Amino acid sequence: MNSVLIDTNVLIYALDSNSIYYHQSIKILMNNDLELYVTTKNISEYFSVCSKLKIDETIIWKFYEELKLNTILLFPDNKSIYLLEHLLKKYKPTGNRIYDLEIFSIMISHGIEEIATFNLDDFKILQK
């Protein structure tokens, strides 16, 4: 079974049946061959984006409850904080790119090497 971290954009697109990424997002989330992970940062981003998009609160919470049942939640730890500090110094990101580094650092500190995302550019710099 492959371990995959789910990026926040996959979660958001799974709520939007009009999105061109909707079916791909659902396919990822429903794939029984994947062990799915999310970070605490993904959860806070999920709620932030949903509130900005003014998605109905009932839908937001229902999806979140399903997410909790079907994914493993990863928390920051000492290793991820040290990795985040290293990445911040190395890449000197600004704005939302900092959140991507935090997600990446948590993911790597827990031994997850694959991420499902539709924003490949967010993590491209880290593939080097």
State Rg. 14 Å
- Helical percentage: 55-70%
Average pLDDT, rounded to a whole number, is 93
CATH architecture of the domain at 2-75 and 112-120: 3-Layer(aba) Sandwich
- How large is the share of residues in beta strands? 5-15%
Strand order of the largest sheet: 3-2-1-4
Please describe the biggest sheet, giving its number of strands, its sense, and whether it closes into a barrel: 4 strands, parallel
Can you describe what's shown?
The chain is an alpha/beta fold. It has a domain at 2-75 and 112-120: 5'-nuclease (Rossmann fold). The protein contains seven helices and four strands; from the N terminus they run βααβααβααβα. It has helices spanning 8-15, 22-29, 40-52, 57-70, 78-91, 97-109, 121-124, and strands spanning 2-6, 34-39, 72-74, 115-116. α1 (8-15) crosses α2, α1 packs across α3 (40-52) and α5 (78-91) packs across α6. The two termini are 25 Å apart.
